[in-house]
Amino acid sequence: MSSPSLRYLDQVKGEIDGFMQERVQTNYFTGEAGVPLTTTLQEVEVLYGASQGIKDLASTGELQSLHNRVSSLRADADSQF
To answer: Low-confidence residues of the chain, pLDDT below 70?
Structure first.
């Protein structure tokens, strides 16, 4: 049995990263810029197919504001519980 070759791993990672930077600039799940390579294919499919409304929220910064508000509310709820 042959062992797996990782000779092209860096090139493949670069191509995937370039594709995502070109097509999906924001991780809509977190509101952060960029999509990490640890994202699953299912998650990438959802991000790639996001509605124009979500894309508009991300481009204006409103999506990040919503994520921050949810995090703040979650922290407040946890501290009061």
So the answer is: none
